[in-house]
Amino acid sequence: MFENANILANAYNALPDLDEADFQLNSRKDGCIDFLLSIIMKHGKHEFVGIRLLHKHNLIENGEIMAEYHQVDKDGFSLITRATKVRDWSSNLRPNSWIFKNGEWTPMEFSNAELLKNPNVNPSSEKELFQELADAINLFEVEDVIGPSLMGSDLIDSYRPDGEYMLVEQTALDDRANILRYAKIKNNMPFKAVETHWCMEKDKEKGTTIKSCKKICPPTDYSPSKHNGTYIHKQD
């Protein structure tokens, strides 16, 4: 999986930052996310696959990947994706998202398998699904900013507090990492959030399957002194 680690690093570094990715998506044809989710629904994989806004938080070096693990500290549960040397990871790492460029899928980020609902879903195991997604991504001209992303496991959901909470993503520049923590979503939040991950999930009240945003990120120019529940302690 990591034989071409330098290619993976170059592909990740070529991603736009958050604001540029959001701008590019909003500049394209309407209905892109809904259409891609409908393809996933048609193939019956909506429990395992969603759609994400492809963007970078930092640059990585050759031989590095962006790899996700979880942590529970005094501030609660967090998902941390950080630049990591490939040699430092065990064999339970799996791609969690991909970009379709030059006629092929390239992994963008990786997760410990325990953090994914079905870590065995990938472009090779679901060829028809990923081909339809590739065709639609090209049709909407969003190949630089939109790609399929695997859904998080029940382990992640088990830490979600009761109430209106969502995973909010922010950058830890010194660590070359991005951190997701559950934060309470309010109508008067001090920033206009950028949606970064969408899926189809069951509405418990209505019993129907609906489009849902699972992750948001503050815009780049929002840099509070306190990270609103997404602060990460530096790791030794």
TrEMBL record:
Q: Which domain of life is it from?
A: Bacteria
Instruction: Report what the protein is called.
Output: Uncharacterized protein
